[in-house]
Amino acid sequence: MEDVAAKPYPPGNYDVVVVGSGPGGLQTSHSLTRLGVPHAVLSRDEAPGGMFRRFPIFERLISWTKPDAPVGRKTREYEWYDHNSLVGDEAACGLAPEFMDRSFDVPSRAEMEASLVAFAERASVEVRYGCHWEGTRREQDGFTLQTSDGDYRCRFLIFAIGVTQPWVPAIRGAEHASHYVDTHPPGAYRDKRVVIIGKRNSGFEIGSGLLPWASELVLVSPRPVQIDVLPHSPLRLRYLQPYEEYVRGGAGTFVVDAAISAIERVNGARRVIAEGTTRPGRLEFDADAVILATGFQAPLQDLRELGVETVLNDRIPAQSPFFESLSVPGVFFAGNTTQGARGMRKHGVSPNSTSVNGFRYNARVVAEHVADRLGIERERPRLEQNQVVPLILHELSCAPELWIQKNFLARVVTVGGEGIRDEGIVPLEHFLDTGGEDAVAAAIEMNERAVIHPTVYVRRANRIAEHELEPHPVHAYGGHVYTHEVESLLKPLL
Amino acid sequence: MADRPDIAERLAGLALFADLTPTQVEAVAHRFDEEVFAEGQRILRTGLSGAGLFVIVEGQAVIRIDGIERARFGPGEVFGEIGVLTGELPNADVEAATMLRCLEIPSPEVEPFLIEFPRVMYRMLQAEARRLRITTEWKT
C-alpha cells in the first residue's frame, strides 16, 4: 500500500489550499511561495501538466512562443514573446522554447507538457498527486476540503481545476453524437460524412484535422464566423482552412449558420436537423458521425451547492476582479477558470484569461490578494518623483501583463501620505471602482475600431480621468512626444 | 448538479424578445454575453468610455448621478443604450443593487443587432418612450 504520509502536504490545517496541478495551479503555488504564503497543493493527477497531458487532440497549440527575441529569455520583457511559459524565478521562467523543435512558432502538446513538468521541477513546486477533491464544506472561519486522503481545513481555497468537463447544450438526440473529448484518431473518419456542431476553437481544430480524412465535412452552429474580428479573437486563423474552402466554393466542406433542432438515428447513420439563422430555412445533414464541439465547463463538483454563482451558461464561476467567487467569499479560482472574471469588457474586449499567457498573471494577482488578506506584508517600492513618468512609459512600451491582459490589468503608482509607491500590477476595474489616494494607472487597451493604444487613468480627489494616447506603430512610447504628454497628465499629481 | 436555465431560456422570458421565433432567440443568445455582478459592483462609469448595452435578466440595478440614486431598473429593462446610441460617455454610474445577472451586447455590435432584429428595436423604442414620458411628467 502507498505510504500516504510520505507525500507532501498531509491532511491538516493550512492557510490556503490550491487544487490542481495544471499551469494555473503550478503558477499559483509558485507565486504564493515567492510571497511567503503557506499553502498546500493537491491534485488528482499523477503528474503536472493538467489538460496538456491530453489536449489538444490534434496536438498543436494556438498560442505562440518566439524562441528567439531581441531580449533574453530570462527577462520580464521576454514574456511578451513567449505566451506559453509560466513566470517567476529565473531558473523556472521562459522554459517553453527549450522544448520546441521550431517546426512552428507554437508548441505541440507534448512540448508544452514537457515545459510544465520542467517548471514544477525547477521551481520546486510540490504537489500532493493522486489526491482527489471529494467535497467542500463551509466552516465559521474558512472551509474544509474533503479528499481521498483526508480533510484539509483552510481559510482560502484556490481552485485551478481547468475548464475540462464536456459541456453539451440541450439538443434533442444529443446521445447520438459524441463530444470532442471522445474524438477518435483521424483515420477512424476515413471516407465518412462528419457533422461537427460548433464553430469555435475545438470545432475548427477537429474540422481542419479531419479535412484529409472525411469524405464530407459540415460545421454548424447558430452564430456566423465573425471574419472581421478574427485577428482579435481566440479563434485563430490557423484553424480556418475548412472555412476558407467553404467560402471559396470548394466541394465537400460546409460551414453553416443554423440552430440544431435534433439529432436522429436513421438506418444506422445520423441525421442532423437544423433551422437556418443567417438564412432561414430547414436543413438536414446525413452523417456517419456527429461530433459535439460545444465546449467545456469547469468541473465545479459541489461548489454550486456551496453557493457559487456561475456565468456563461452555468459553465464558469462568476468572479470578482481578484478572481474570488462573487457569492462565496474565500473561494478563489486560478487558471483557465479565471475567464469568469469578466473585467470591464470595454468595447466588448474580454481578457485573455482562457490561455496560459493571460492566466499566469491572474494567478499572481490572486496570490498577492490572498497574501494581503492574510496580512502578509508585500513590497511596495518607493519611487522618486522623476522615476514615475519613465516607469509609466516603459510599462506602456513593453509590460507583458498590460500587452497580454489588455483592458484588464494595469500598472499603478500611488501618490499619498507614504510618498510615491509602485503598487505593481492591479486589476483595472479595482483601480477605477475603489477610490483611494491620488494615483495613476497605465493600461493597454483596444478601442471600438480594434486599434490597440495606451490609456492613462489619473485619479485625483477620487475623480478618474481617462486619457487615450495615440497608438505608435512599433509600440515605442518612450519618445519626446509621449514623455511630454504623460508629464503634463501627471503634473497635478506630482 | 443544480439545474440553472440557459441563456436562450432566460431571453425567451423577456418582453423585449417576445416577438422572436425560438430559432431567432437562440441566434440572439449566441450574440449576447452573460455577465454577473455582485451587489455594489459598478457596470457603467460616469465619463469612462467603452460600455455596452445591457439587458437585466435577474436582480436590480441602481442609477446614480454624483452618488445620488436617480432610478432603479429590474428584469427585462435595458440600460447603457443612451451612451451606445449617441456615442457619448455615460453621465451616470450604474451599479448592481443586488446580485445582478445581465446580458450584454458590446457597443460595436448594437447597431447591426438592432437592424437585424427590428421587432426588438421597436420594443426598445416603446420602453424608451415610456421612460421619456416619466421624465417629462417629472419636469411639468
What does this structure look like?
The complex is a heterodimer of chains A (494) and B (140). Chain A has 494 residues and is of the alpha/beta class. Chain A has three domains: 4-164 and 297-373, FAD/NAD(P)-binding domain, CATH 3.50.50.60; 174-294, FAD/NAD(P)-binding domain (3-Layer(bba) Sandwich); 382-490, no CATH class. Chain A has helices at 23-35, 109-122, 201-210, 241-247, 303-306, 356-373, 385-398, 400-404, 428-434, 480-490; strands at 12-19, 39-42, 133-139, 142-147, 150-159, 165-166, 178-179, 193-197, 216-221, 253-266, 269-276, 282-287, 289-292, 296-297, 310-311, 316-317, 331-333, 382-383, 409-416, 419-427, 438-446, 452-460, 463-468. In chain A, the strands form five sheets. Chain A has a seven-stranded mixed β-sheet. In chain A, strands 1, 2, 3, 4, 5 and 17 form a six-stranded mixed β-sheet that branches. The longest helix of chain A has 18 residues, at 356-373. Chain B is an alpha+beta fold. Chain B has one domain (32-139): Jelly Rolls. Chain B is 37% helix and 26% strand. Chain B contains five helices and eight strands. In chain B, the strands form two sheets. Chain B has a four-stranded antiparallel β-sheet with strand order 1-8-3-6. A four-stranded antiparallel β-sheet of chain B has the order 2-7-4-5, with no helix packed on it. The longest helix of chain B has 22 residues, at 118-139. Chain A binds chain B through residues 169-170, 221-223, 257, 259, 275-277, 280, 304-305, 309-314, 318, 320, 326-327, 342, 344-350, 407, 432-433, 445, 447-448, 464-466, 468, and chain B through 1-2, 4, 6-7, 22-24, 26-27, 29-31, 33-38, 41-42, 45, 47-52, 99, 101, 104, 106-109.
